[in-house]
Design brief:
It contains 11 helices and 12 strands. By secondary structure, the protein is α+β, with helices and mostly antiparallel strands.
Length: 342
């Protein structure tokens, strides 16, 4: 088995296992909230457990795991040292549903595998968002486990687990599917869709078809208003023609929804007066999924996303995703309206 094949299979298994962990925590949100007395605690437990399981799986199967992850175990270690083990115990319990023999020390060490310095791993490193879409997770709606392998500043492998997103596109986006979906994209080779809970199943090849002229544009947008400039998005839509009912959901699942043609355009636009640097784990897996399905993925200046500057997309502003033709029209509208140029 080639190194690439080993990496692909390990990533699929890691994300599938993490998806199981997240679903287990989400299934008992009320119990975890009651025990930990904190509305954010369930997603904290799932974040830590998901990262631990992904890192443990990758290291176990590949021998090493250079990773830039969203989480680290510093807070958990401090809580344990102070005698408060409630969150850490829940994390261990969650990870143990797929990790036989897991111990507290092993789980904490696995979480901290996400502390790698990407600048010291130019040949390749993983980046992980263990739960992308916190609010969606807490609403029992859409979120994602997003894992990408980056070489020389570009994602070359992406595995995007969407535990609540149905492969049936007629299924409501605001409801929880019992199996979920998982997307695997390999640079230059395409994108495939699997059941999230069955990474060994026969996959479906995903290829984005170009829209017909005059067809209404279905925007894929965040449920949270703070993530983008909705006013600017509406101005762009006015230039593109008739707008269809938007697809509203959290997380990098939006990339998958556009990639498979359920949505047409995903815009993440800078908010005036609120500069923000996107994090690499928020876009690595999703961007290659969309790109390998045939979409164009750039920032608002038309630049490709550059993952070579540490944990942030320091050289990019905003995100524009759509089929090649619609992406071009959206970029024209952005330039005409001078969005992000102030």
């Amino acid at each position: 088995m080639s190194e690439q094949t080993k990496r692909i299979e390990a990533a699929k298994l890691a994300v599938s296992r993490a998806s199981v962990v997240c679903r287990e925590v989400q299934a008992r949100l009320a119990d975890v909230q009651s025990l930990l007395k904190d509305d954010r605690s369930p997603v904290t437990v799932a974040d830590f457990a998901s990262q631990a399981v992904v890192a443990w799986t990758l290291k176990d199967l590949l021998g090493s795991c250079p990773m830039v992850g969203e989480e680290d175990a510093h807070e958990l270690r401090e809580q344990i040292a102070a005698g408060n083990t409630s969150v850490a115990d829940q994390v261990l319990d969650a990870a143990s549903c797929v990790w036989d023999g897991a111990t507290m020390d092993a789980v904490l060490d696995a979480i901290d595998l996400g502390n790698a310095d990407s600048q010291q791993h130019k040949h390749g490193f993983w980046t992980l968002d263990p739960i992308d879409g916190t609010k969606g997770f807490l609403r029992n709606q859409q979120y994602a486990v997003a894992l990408g392998w980056i070489e020389h500043g570009d994602p070359v492998l992406g595995v995007l687990g969407c535990p609540n997103l149905s492969r049936d596109q007629s299924f409501p986006l605001d409801e929880k599917d019992p199996n979920g979906s998982m997307y695997v994209a390999i640079a230059g080779e395409g994108c495939w869709e699997y059941p999230a809970d069955e990474p060994g199943a026969e996959p479906a090849h995903i290829r984005r078809l170009e829209r017909s002229d005059g067809e209404p544009v279905r925007m894929c947008e965040s449920a949270e208003s703070g993530h983008t400039s909705h006013d600017d998005a509406e101005r762009i839509l006015e230039r593109l023609g008739e707008a269809a009912e938007p697809a509203r959901l959290d997380s990098q699942a939006k990339y998958a929804v556009v990639a498979r043609g359920q949505g047409d355009l995903y815009l993440r636009l800078p908010r005036p007066g609120k500069p923000y640097v996107e994090r690499i784990w928020d876009h690595a897996a999703g961007s290659i999924v969309a790109r390998e399905a045939g979409c164009a993925v750039t920032d608002i200046a038309g630049l490709e996303l550059d993952f070579s500057h540490g944990a942030g997309l320091e050289k990019n502003r905003g995100i524009v995703v759509g089929d090649v033709k619609l992406h071009g029209l959206a970029m024209g509208a952005i330039n005409e309206l001078q969005i992000g140029q102030a």
